[in-house]
Amino acid sequence: MSETPKLSNDCFALPEGVNWTPVAEALDTLRAGVRCVATPEVLPLVQAGGRILAETQIAKRSHPPYANSAMDGYGFAHASLGTGEQVLELVEGRSAAGDPYDGEVPAGMAIRILTGAMIPAGVDTVIMQEDVAREDTRIRFRSGLKAGANIRPAGEDMRAGQEVLAAGRVLQPQDLGLLASVGIDTVPVYRPLRVGVLSTGDELRQAGEDIAPHQIFDANRPMLLELVRRWGMEPVDLGHVRDDAARVKTVLDTAAGSADVVLTTGGASAGDEDHISAALRGAGALNLWRIALKPGRPLALGIWQGVPVFGLPGNPVAAMVCALIFARPYLLAMNGGGWVAPRALDLPAAFAKSKKPGRREYLRGRITGDGQVEVFRSEGSGRISGLSWADGLVELPDDTREIAEGDPVRFYPYSAFGL
Known about the structure:
It is a single chain. With 419 residues, the protein is α/β, with parallel strands linked by helices. The chain has four domains: 20-39 and 192-334, Molybdenum Cofactor Biosythetic Enzyme, Chain A (3-Layer(aba) Sandwich), CATH 3.40.980; 42-61 and 159-190, Molybdopterin biosynthesis moea protein, domain 2; 68-152, Molybdopterin biosynthesis moea protein, domain 3 (Molybdopterin biosynthesis moeA protein, domain 3, Beta Complex); 345-417, Beta Barrel (Beta-clip). The protein is built from seven helices and 29 strands. The strands form eight sheets. Strands 1-19-21-22-18-14-17 form a seven-stranded mixed beta sheet, with helices on both faces. Strand 21 (298-304) and strand 22 form a beta hairpin. Mean pLDDT is 89; it is low at 7-18.
């Protein structure tokens, strides 16, 4: 496997003089600086689900490969029909899927044909068996059937040589079926991006450990590791590090050798114990963004030994929101999937709110039984229960907004973020 290319230290740089960075500008800057670092490999089709296509796929065979019957019935040449009631003699034999009729059906005669069966020579129309009265070796039916009825032509779905799926697509189960239908049995895909996840802070302990009254259990690392898995990437658990500058640097050194990108939580602002931002600053690779965002705001971005580091906020809600909004599209692009913006729904609000100008807000929300969207009772970024209560995020734009019940609001279901 070829060595993963490294990134330059200025890929996260914002223009000089920027103070509070709007969300849209932050996303534009991230998009401009990202590039794919994943390497391709060829896998059997049945093992490629969830991976990202490294090359556009071209159909090897048409689908369907031959004209076939859309249903059980009888086939004949439409030109041989007259007016009024039709009576046609049946040829001996039939055409079935996997057992085609090897002769030609004479004009004025019909053949029994089953769903999916190859259309025999001399046939261009099929009538449904429900519309036919059969009498031993002949059939009767009324006139009025259109020529070509109930026949699926060869290549109706895909033709040999046609582009099937474009590079950069995350392969879904239905995609594997499509590729198999046109004769593709192996596909080039990108190896999963290795994403390191690190928690920092003296106050943290892991669930199951002894804990003091002044300490809390680490919620961020289990959450982020699972996000990485859901995005089809390889999570690298970097554990938890205390608020110690030397230890933080040692863990980052380890991360640079085992991950393609690192997500950290805590220690990303400018305080005395914010050692992630201090380490990146010491390496000359810190871009401390203050995002005009609620929840979130501080976002430390930098490069450690050529590996991008996302310093996410420590509060769980802010950590997840920033991971979904900023980290996910960047990681997907690094993994060869291109920049993927989430798709939103416009739904009527089941709440009222007066929003101040100057920053974008993301509220935990869920769809009600009547198709509206309600929001969690608290906007506190430490209220992690609201993430489980919700089934998505309500986005409120940067400007001033008075929202009354029934007003349309933008809602991103969790599925829009690959969850």
